[in-house]
Design a protein that fits this description.
Radius of gyration: 24 Å
Helix content: 25-40%
Structural class: alpha/beta
Number of strands: 26
Number of helices: 11
Bound molecules: alpha-L-arabinofuranose
Distance between the termini: 60 Å
């Protein structure tokens, strides 16, 4: 009897769960109420001298058998060009606070040590000119991180003079002799990196003094970057969710509010990795639904952190002149077995595609404050776009998310209201569906919808105000399992495929596959 009762109750619970999962998700998109611009800079990348992020990932040298242009691999350039990367943060990371630019210019390069990342030698073959050439080849812009930890204001000031002056100074002549007579454009300058930890373990006050000095003396002389086109300076901001980071954020923002004419800043950096706990222990491949749910729960904390730092910034900068720059974010898992632990090598699964979409949507919803972000890291390190192994290259699910989100670059945010439903795994309940909408620069409406539920499809019904849809079509990215990956042997296992919505009674109707990211445009 007891067994029968238990079976009946369990069946009822499962039926309810299934009913909830099957419930239609209704989205309401109001095109008549456009919001902020989604700054294309939120699709920025981070490329550090770390493991095979630069060496082998980007730089193979001009004598390599791997097809390259002036030492930079062609396959990687072609893949990156296609996702229109707006900016690349370089040379670090922790590496930046030990980087001395002079060792990376000229015919003879000093061999140094990369003491942060694996203690390996650094050939300095990829230096300033190679980085700028790489940007040119992929069609991107420089976000340079200057060395505050072990460098001097003079060293950083001379780097910027070397890069940007058109006048016939000794440094300009040296730049010209090294192959680039015209001044380079440096639109973004990071003043230090994690100065509260690997960047010198500074107190907030000490850092603020450094910030003022670097902001004052590290100048950009490029005539094209004066007035409205000035180089934007980004100060070190908070890391995790500890009280010391609130103190840090207060100190930097308060100093900025009370600033004198002699210095300024335009952005405050924020770092937040999805890691759950340190040291990173979650596997990047060969995991199950429990780890899927735990990681996604953790990644959604990005929103709360942005709210927290924005609230402090609002106190000192209600006009939102200072951008919150999330210049390190992404999933940080345990190193792949057999890899150098200092190289931060991990696989990239369908879970990471979902994670990327959820974070990009959070940034888009905070478009008024979050105007730049850099996923860590571009190639072969952490949540990368691309993985390489000698001459082989594979594009990750995260790469395809960036490709699908291209229409959102500089698009105008359009509000979407919806009841997300819920997806439960063990003790964890998450919103089942996430969505954003935006009008691109040509006025076309785009919708992104993520189905977090790895088991059930999501039936979506979209009501549009201010536009009568004729059709909607686009692409969807899903995979057989949450831990499915693209490998060198099966590089096309996960790729976007076409999807179309039905139009019924003026509404868009579509079904999102389990664990999928979908982007469609609406034709009117
Ligand atoms: O991205 C790897 C490292 O993480 C960066 O060098 C550092 O800034 C952060 O702690």
């Amino acid at each position: 009897m007891l067994r029968l009762l238990t079976t009946v109750v369990l069946t009822a619970i499962l039926a309810t769960a299934n009913f909830n999962a099957q419930q239609k998700i209704e989205l309401a998109v109001d095109v008549s109420k456009p919001g902020e611009k989604i700054n294309r800079n939120i699709f920025g990348q981070f490329a550090e001298h770390l493991g095979h992020g630069i060496y082998e990932g980007v730089w193979v040298g001009p004598d390599s058998k791997i097809p390259n242009t002036r030492g930079i691999r062609n396959d990687v350039v072609n893949a990156l060009r296609a996702i229109k990367i707006p900016n690349v943060r370089w040379p670090g990371g922790c590496f930046a606070d030990e980087y001395h630019w002079r060792k990376g210019v000229g015919q003879t390069r000093a061999v140094t040590l990369n003491s942060n990342w694996g203690g390996v030698t650094e050939s300095n073959s990829f230096g300033t000119h190679e980085f700028m050439d790489f940007l040119d080849q992929i069609g991107s812009e420089a976000y340079l991180s200057v060395n505050v930890g072990s460098g001097t204001p003079q060293e950083a000031a001379e780097w910027l003079e070397y890069l940007t002056t058109p006048q016939a100074t000794t440094l300009q002549k040296e730049r010209a002799a090294n192959g680039h007579p015209a001044p380079y454009k440096i639109p973004y300058l990071g003043i230090g990196n994690e100065s509260w930890d690997c960047g010198g373990n500074m107190t907030p006050d000490y850092y603020v003094s450094q910030l003022k000095i670097y902001s004052r003396f590290v100048r950009n002389f490029n005539p094209a970057q004066q007035g409205n086109n000035q180089m934007l300076k980004i100060a070190v901001g908070p890391g995790g969710d500890e009280p010391r980071f609130a103190e840090w954020t207060e100190a930097v923002m308060k100093a900025w509010q009370n600033r004198q004419w002699s210095w300024d800043m335009n952005g405050l950096s924020m770092h937040n990795y999805t890691v759950v706990r340190w040291p990173p222990a979650f596997k990047s491949t060969g995991f199950g639904e429990s780890e899927y749910a735990q990681i996604l729960k953790s990644t959604l904390e990005m929103d709360g952190l942005i709210n927290k730092w924005s609230a402090i910034m609002d106190k000192y900068d209600p006009q939102k002149k200072i951008a919150l720059v999330v210049d390190e974010w992404g999933a940080w898992y345990a190193p792949l077995p057999g890899s150098n632990p200092g190289f931060l090598v991990q696989q990239n699964s369908q879970r990471d595609a979902i994670l990327a979409a959820l974070n990009l949507n959070i940034f888009a919803r905070h478009a008024d404050r979050v105007r730049m972000a850099n996923i860590a890291q571009m190639i072969n390190v952490l949540q990368s776009m691309i993985m390489t192994d000698k001459e082989k290259m594979v594009l990750t699910p995260t790469y395809y998310v960036y490709k699908m989100y291209l229409p959102f670059q500089d698009a105008t945010f359009v509000p979407v209201t919806f009841n997300a439903g819920s997806y439960t795994q063990g003790q964890i309940t998450l919103p089942r569906v996430d969505a954003i909408a935006a009008k691109d620069t040509a006025g076309k409406l785009w919708l992104e919808m993520t189905n977090v539920d790895p088991n059930q499809p999501a039936e979506i019904e979209v009501t549009l105000t201010g536009i009568t849809p004729k059709s909607a079509a686009g692409e969807t990215l899903t995979a057989p399992r949450v831990d499915s990956v693209n490998t060198f042997d099966a590089p096309n296992a996960i790729m976007p495929k076409s999807i179309a919505a039905k139009v019924q009674g003026g509404k868009l109707i579509l079904k999102l596959e389990p664990k999928s990211v979908t982007v469609v445009s609406v034709e009117k």
